Amino acid sequence: MVVWVIILKSPREIDRMRKAGCIVYEILCVLRELVRPGVTSFDLERIAAEEAAKRKAKCAFKGYHNYPSSLCCSPNNQVVHGLPTRVQLVSGDILSLDFGILIDDFHGDAAITVPVGDVSALADQLITTTEKSLYAGIEMAVPGNRLGDISFAIQSYVEKKGFSVVRDFVGHGIGKSLHEDPQIPNYGNSGKGVKLKAGMVFAIEPMINEKAPEVRVLDDKWTVVTCDGGLSAHFEHTVAITENGPEILTRI
Ligand code: CO
Asked: What's the CA-to-centroid distance between 235 and ligand 1, angstroms?
């Protein structure tokens, strides 16, 4: 049996996390509008850092376990933790952007996958399915449910659409630390795992592959790619569990 130490947040602390979440989402919206053929992830990294500085927010990923950047940029077959590069995006690419900040002692963490120019119908379906699976998971984040209800909702939605769930990386609790207990797998059984309570705050983040679920880490020690070269998409929200149900903190 796994024993998690889950730090509950008071309503006042959730107010502070709402501010962090709002900034993360604002910046992801700025970046999303800039994604087009010719732009590099290096450009996006610079803008993300500038936008955070404007808001007096600290970029949470930079320096975290020595991660070298503020933004994770993972195109096409990259799953997560891609490093910004000077390679220009081209029409048909898909690009996952994952961004986190720290402000007033609390973190916000969110991710989106964006099409570049015109993408294939399959790429488009993968993006839509991943985003909808996140919302299927969030819907289950209510007091009295169990962690496995979130995991199962994501997995069953994704597999019904013919895509696969990455096992090797998972979501997480979030608060004063970027990663807190519990781990939140995007696969699992309903009715299993810890009972959800008001005051828990989770970063729920399905990473979904076009083909097989297996992934590996490149020699740069960060970039996670699909083993079979298939596409991968990633969406993430920071979500508070409240008496009134789930509240997405990473939105405006
Ligand atoms: Co996260």
From this structure: 10
